[in-house]
Each structure stands twice: as structure tokens, then as C-alpha cells.
Design goal:
By secondary structure, this protein is α+β, with helices and mostly antiparallel strands. The chain contains four helices and eleven strands, in the order βββββαβαβαββββα. The protein has one domain: Glutaredoxin (3-Layer(aba) Sandwich). The chain has a five-stranded mixed sheet. A hairpin with a 2-residue loop joins strand 1 and strand 2. The chain is globular. 38% of the residues are buried.
Length: 171
Amino acid sequence: MEERTGIITMRGNPLTLLGKGLNIGDKAPDFEVLNNDLQPVKLSAYKGKVCIISAVPSLDTPICDLQTRRFNKEAAALSADTVILTVSVDLPFAQKRWCGAAGADKVVTLSDHRNVSFGQAFGVLIKELRLLARAVFVVDKEGVIRHAQIVGEIAQEPDYDAVLKAVKQLV
């Protein structure tokens, strides 16, 4: 497994990412995660839609909560051909509880807890914590990455405007 350093920090402390780094123009690798009902879901199930993949360390932390609530709010203005997937290693039960408490009904929360398939495939698995780095990817209808941001400091929010601009160019 490839290890990459110098990409992210947590409160200024460097962390190691596992998995190959992805670039704009790369084919998005498929992965398998669990939905809130413990059913397996693959990225390939969303082929034909523009996918915003929002990776967060844990929905039960303030910045992850803000990020997911923001994307849930932005979803109302997006095309029906767009889906927002929020991926974390939180258990599906915790994700379902969080969605209910937050009133988040437009984002799809997916758990990578079982085998960190997404984290490894997208190169955002934090070696030291077994959590996902804060990152956002936009994947077009053909499965090609059109926007990628790994947030350098895990305690900061992503660039929402850049994500939304990338999505609007695709629909």
C-alpha cells in the first residue's frame, strides 16, 4: 500500500495517507461501502449521475457536521442528475442517527468502516487514525474525476464554491 506524506495535518501535526493519489482526469476507482441499512453500495451504482463525494473523518465532529449540513443544503439547488455521497468510517448506525438529528435528507451517508475500500482507493485513508481525510471529489456521469480537493488541514472546511462550480459545468 502506497504511503504519502506532506499532504495533510491535524492541528499542524503531519499525517500519512494510504493509497494512490488521484488526479483530475483519472477514472474514479470503484469501491464498496455500506449504506445506513447495512447494504453494500458501490460507486458504479451511480454511473450516469454527477457524484459529489464528500469524505469526512467523523460526522460527530464539528467541521464534518458543518460540511455535511452545507452539502445537504446545497443539494436543493442541484440538478436531479447529481448525488452527494458523504463517506466516513462511522458505523452505519451512527450515520443514520446523525442524519435524523441533523435533518439531513438529501445527502447519502455511506460507511467505509468495514474494509476502508473507499479510503484506500481514493488515497484518503489516514494511517495513524484509520479515519478518512477531509476531501471532496466530483465525478462526472462517465466516472471520471473532474474536481479533487484534499483539505490540507483536517480542521478546515473544503472550498464549497469550487465544488459547486465544477458540478455546474457538468450538468
